[in-house]
């Protein structure tokens, strides 16, 4: 079972999905492989998407399960998958899919994404996957900082 919310093995710079449904499945497989969720969590991610789009703007979608799927979450975790070609996400182009599963409070994950809509990570959304070779290191530090802040609350 995972103890770190985001690790480099859950950051994929060349995702293979071509549709929203495939992207959700790809992210769910990463969460399952990390030991963070049971395979049933994917259905809850699809259900959430049918209720409300998880498109966040700036080429980012954050799929996650419904509140009823808490039993399927074994540990808090997230994945980040970048796509060379935008995926049609209910009429919106998405290049980065960051799936989340929250066992405990989600403050750390929410803080991690706080600046995304303003474009502070826009370099990873477009162009070559090598555009931001420091992407993993930068965002792991941000996530660690946010996790520490949420524990202090």
**How many β strands by DSSP?**
5
* Main beta-sheet annotation: 5 strands, mixed
Helical/strand content category? alpha/beta
Q: Which strand order spans the largest sheet, edge to edge or round the barrel?
A: 1-4-5-3-2
* Assembly annotation: single chain
The average pLDDT is: 79
Strand content: 15-25%
Residue windows where pLDDT falls under 50 for at least 5 positions = 114-132
In DSSP terms (H or I, runs of 4 or more residues), the helix count works out at 5
What is the general shape? globular
Distance between the termini: 25 Å
Radius of gyration: 14 Å
Order of helices and strands: EHHEEEEHHH
Q: Give the fraction of residues assigned to helices.
A: 25-40%
Summarize the structure in words.
The two termini are 25 Å apart. The chain has helices at 20-33, 41-51, 107-112, 122-125, 135-152; strands at 11-12, 55-57, 60-61, 77-89, 92-101. It is globular. The relative contact order is 0.19. Mean pLDDT is 79; it is low at 114-132. The chain is built from five helices and five strands, in the order βααββββααα.
Observed structural traits:
about 150 residues
Q: Can you give me a brief rundown of this structure?
A:
The chain has 153 residues and is α/β, with parallel strands linked by helices. The chain has helices spanning 20-33, 41-51, 107-112, 122-125, 135-152; strands at 11-12, 55-57, 60-61, 77-89, 92-101.
